[in-house]
Amino acid sequence: MNVRIDDFRTETTAIDGLVVVRMKQIHDERGTIREFFRASAMADAGLHAGPWQQLNLTETSHGALRGLHGEAMTKLVSVVRGSVFGAYVDARPGSPTVGAVVTVPIEVGVQVLVPQGVLNGFQSTSEGTSQYLYCFDQEWRPGMAGSAISPLDPELAIAWPVPVDPENRSQLSAKDAAAPMLAEILAAS
């Protein structure tokens, strides 16, 4: 049997604390076994992740965009089916990387650890739909501290891979289309 092992590894990004994680995967003729989460591997890499208090799964159509949202919680995000284009913006006042933007193509086996206050958004790039999994270290509740900004903020210069029509509600929610720009959020903080 031909076996290939992809070991656990991490990649730092231009946003302080935002880390791309590639979990261990074992491939053979039968398919693939993927570790979705291993606390000891994360701890050995110096990453604080979990314990997870809530997991959400979204099913998102091709070209649809969700975000950019940032709550007072750490998130581990990935896809369990399909692929997405992830975008992250540091909106934390006082952060050494405030204003930084990072994009990450996410497919099965790729995760992003998103620290509290970093805005998270994604666009489904799969034909059909993608399934995007969020792991939260706190339960979401109405009124929870957080912020949202427009994913179409021209100052961010995010090159969404599928053109976005801000009037198309199957592609962008009214709430996300009406969200303020990053400069407005930072000026108010």
UniProtKB/TrEMBL annotation:
Gene3D superfamilies: Jelly Rolls (2.60.120.10). The active site is at H69, Y134. SUPFAM superfamilies: RmlC-like cupins (SSF51182). GO terms for biological process: dTDP-rhamnose biosynthetic process; polysaccharide biosynthetic process. GO terms for cellular component: cytosol. GO terms for molecular function: dTDP-4-dehydrorhamnose 3,5-epimerase activity. This is dTDP-4-dehydrorhamnose 3,5-epimerase.
